Amino acid sequence: MRTKYIDLIDQTFEFPQDEFNLKDDRLIFHGIDLMRLIDEYGTPLKFNYLPQISYNIQRAKGWFREAMNNLGYGGNYYYSYCTKSNHFSYVLEEVLKNGVHIETSSSYDIEIIHHLYKKKKIDDGSYIICNGFKPEKYLENIAKLIEKTKLEVIPVVDNTQELQDLMNTIDKPFNIGIRIAAEEEPKFEFYTSRLGIRYREIVPFYKSMLQNNPQVKVKMLHFFINTGINDTAYYWNELTKCLRIYCDLKKVCPELDSLNIGGGFPIKKSLAFDYDYAYMVKEIILQVQKVCADNEIEEPHIFTEFGSFTVGESGGAIFSILHQKQQNDREKWNMIDSSFMTNLPDTWAINQRFILLPINRWNDDYERVLLGGLTCDSDDYYNSEQHSNAIYLPKFNKQKILYIGFFNTGAYQETLGGFGGLKHCLIPEPKHILIKRDEHGKIQTELFSEEQTAKDYMNLLGY
Fold first, then answer.
1. pLDDT score at 217
2. Helix (H, G, I), strand (E, B), or coil: what is residue 336?
3. What domains are defined for the chain?
4. Which site from 289, 375, 392, 453 is most exposed, i.e. has the minimal number of CB atoms within 10 Å?
5. Which of these, 369, 343, 353, 367, lies nearest to 407 by C-alpha position?
6. Which of 126, 411, 462 shows the shortest CA–CA distance to 266?
7. Per-residue pLDDT at 329 exceeds 90
């Protein structure tokens, strides 16, 4: 009878996979023996495997390059990174090694851009796409970026008043984009995105405020789908509507030359993940090409804004199982040495799934469990009630500590969890390490931050 954890994985998934394999009964991630990390740094532990960032960027560039070349597409492709996914310096520095562009969301983002530009991490001529609703400070910082750098800054207008605010703040001619307020999926609680200008208002807005305006040129139409780029009727329908608006606007606005298809690629959240990126890229390019040909207009440059796809698959979190509680005849709770709510907040806030695997004891028998965090909040858990699959892990054994890993957690978790700040029930921020490879491919680790201490919390709380 096959009762070992490795048997369960073999029967359920194709395994090993590109990033996951085994050495004896220990999990290896991108060639990294995770038990060695645990031996050196302990748990709880967060990490970022930085080479994965460059790998994903280059993959996406390759898909677009191949599709455009094969189809004879007339425009260029520009990969942009959404800083809101992960603002940390180690992420931006890895991202910018790959000749990409940046999308910002707030005034503080612009401060980061200024810093990187002064350090010559961002080259002259790089695109900075300024998205989001723009309060006064954000507008002022955008103006400084336009006036004091040689970057190609494109503030994307979110509403008609914003255009007037930009004109009042910026003293020289500048380019803008216009964001479409896309319709949301039918299951959403509202019909239309709160961001952007409604489809039917875009061409009238251009004619009334921009057509004869010497200070402003419209260079980009921005299209964003909250659920990302997926092969669904909803996505293709919204893209088609966007392309119609692009063509209508292009016919009265000759300087318009770029289409930003914001909304990211999905990333791997399960060992059963199956997504044909190259097919989706080819179909998008085909759709753009066809609509432009039907309308007898030039094919636009294509911009994408990838955040989670860029950085998500670089991140991970490792915990140890402290104790098992048998609460009734069916439910066994494995208690981790951290909190899901505070350190993987998407598991609590939006019922997000991540890849969950044990780090050790793959040759032990398995059992069905629930996972509980350390806070006293009833929502601090991760189990089959919130997620589509039951959790099976090697059986709890007091004498053999079980370590578990959550993978592809690199986007949003630190910012949403309030990195370095107060946490629910004062559960500390875990130790955080960076994993790199040298020029010879040898793995190197670097401590980015220590686990928060009681003194850190006392200082934050004013004691």
1. 97
2. strand
3. 5-50+312-461 (2.40.37.10), 73-306 (3.20.20.10)
4. 453
5. 353
6. 411
7. no
pLDDT of residue 385: 60
d(CA 19, CA 375) in angstroms, rounded, equals 32
Positive or negative torsion for Cα 248, 253, 256, 262: negative
- DSSP readout, 91-105? HHHHHGGG--EEEE-
Percentages of the chain per state (helix, strand, coil), in multiples of 5? 35, 25, 40
Kindly indicate the confidence band of residue 344, based on its pLDDT and cuts at 50, 70 and 90: very high
pTM score: 0.95
Cα 258 from Cα 255, distance rounded (Å): 9
Do 363 and 5 touch, CB atoms closer than 8 A?
yes
Residue whose C-alpha is closest to residue 361's, from 42, 13, 29, 35: 35
Burial of 329 (0-12, 13-18, 19+ CB in 10 A): exposed
Counting runs of H as helices and runs of E as strands, what totals does the chain give?
A: 15, 21
DSSP label at 78?
E
